[in-house]
Amino acid sequence: MSDDEIVVHDPHDKPATYVEADGLDRFENPGLPPHRPRRADLDEGAAKRAERQVTTMFGLSMLGALGFIVAYLFVDPNLRGEILLIGEMNLYHLILGLTMAVSLLGIGFGAVHWAKTLMPDTEVVEERHLQASDQAARDDAAGVLSDGYRGAQLHRRPMLLLTAGGALSLFALPMALQVAGGLDPNIWRDPSPAEMLSRTVWKKGMRLVIDPSGTPIRASDLTQGSVIHVMPEGYAGAHTEDGPSDQEIMTAKATSSVLLVKMNPEDIKSAKQRDWGVDGIVAYSKICTHVGCPVALYERQTHHLLCPCHQSTFDMTNDCEVIFGPAKRPLPQLRITVEDGYLVAADGFAEPVGPSFWERG
């Protein structure tokens, strides 16, 4: 055969590894590769170093879990700071993320290093058998588990088991805290979730201001049919040096937004609604009692308030009772009065605002 000749192989030719048996083509069993012992298998000093490395990783995991719990309970959730190449961010969330990462990575790296250096690494082939096992097979299985326990050197190195158990146990605590309280530790600092959810920033004497300009509202300036979106004084507009933080303003907008409407007092059917207003001027929470959407669509002719999310409709002539949609309770009313000609809150909300929760009285 010359160098220029091209040899074409039949694609149906059997590889050399095929053998004929019972009329079927089968691959020959290649067997297992020869076992190559690791340094820790031959040198007790190397095994000790590996043990120390694994226990150190598990120990770091435990420290990370404890750090998460301490930060969750004692660090200010509004703590902010400048981070190189990132800029300003919430340091509370950064600390939680880093401590959680240390806890999780410590477990993962420790388990992998334990498996690669100390646990048995020989390949084992087990033939498939019937699902039901006799007593002898069960005894064999128990023996395999026992051999695995010894093969992992748990009987010789109890610190591995102790630190692994400690890391896994402590890592479950941050998970339990997040399931129980989310990422807001205030749930553990307040008497109850109901009391915490009942609070807004409204207090007696706070002036009602236009959102977002922050302009105080004179009762005499309002005309029939006026509709104004208002906030407590100090929480409208942008953050100032001596005012609430951006986070506090955002929280106030989510809980303390109010809709102010000037109505004809003769159209108001509820005595309590008239008493809590000023000459037909009434203030109601904008937070829908269904799932918390902003209720802001006012029909002047019917005096109906509509929620744009799920079409819950509230009757403003009768204490904002629900007349249509999935909401189950009226919108809470903010009691207002007049001081020096300006509208102010006579008190905070008398009931929780926003959607339902099971602790609501």
Description:
By secondary structure, the protein is of the alpha+beta class. The chain has two domains: 39-124 and 138-189; 196-345, Rieske [2Fe-2S] iron-sulphur domain (Rieske Iron-sulfur Protein), CATH 2.102.10.10. Helix content is 35%, strand content 16%. The chain has helices spanning 39-42, 44-74, 91-117, 135-151, 158-181, 186-189, 193-197, 246-255, 271-275; strands at 18-21, 24-27, 80-83, 87-90, 208-210, 227-232, 258-262, 281-285, 297-299, 304-306, 313-315, 321-324, 333-334, 336-339, 342-345. The strands form five sheets. It has a five-stranded antiparallel beta sheet with strand order 5-6-7-8-13, covered by helices on one side. The radius of gyration is 35 Å and the shape is elongated. The model is unreliable at 1-12 (pLDDT under 50).
Q: Unreliable segments (pLDDT under 50, ≥5 consecutive)?
A: 1-12
> What's the CATH H-level superfamily name of the largest domain?
Rieske [2Fe-2S] iron-sulphur domain
Number of helices: 9
The CATH class of the largest domain is identified as Mainly Beta
CATH architecture group name of the largest domain: 3-layer Sandwich
Shape: elongated
β-sheet strand percentage: 15-25%
Report on the biggest sheet: 5 strands, antiparallel
Number of strands: 15
The fold-level CATH name of the largest domain is: Rieske Iron-sulfur Protein
The gyration radius over C-alpha positions equals 35 Å
Q: Can you give the helix content as a percent range?
A: 25-40%
Q: What is the domain total for the residues?
A: 2
Q: Look at the structure and give the mean pLDDT.
A: 83
Main location: membrane
InterPro entries: QcrA_N (IPR045603), Rieske_2Fe-2S (IPR017941), Rieske_2Fe-2S_sf (IPR036922), Rieske_Fe-S_prot (IPR014349)
Family: Belongs to the Rieske iron-sulfur protein family.
Protein name: Cytochrome bc1 complex Rieske iron-sulfur subunit
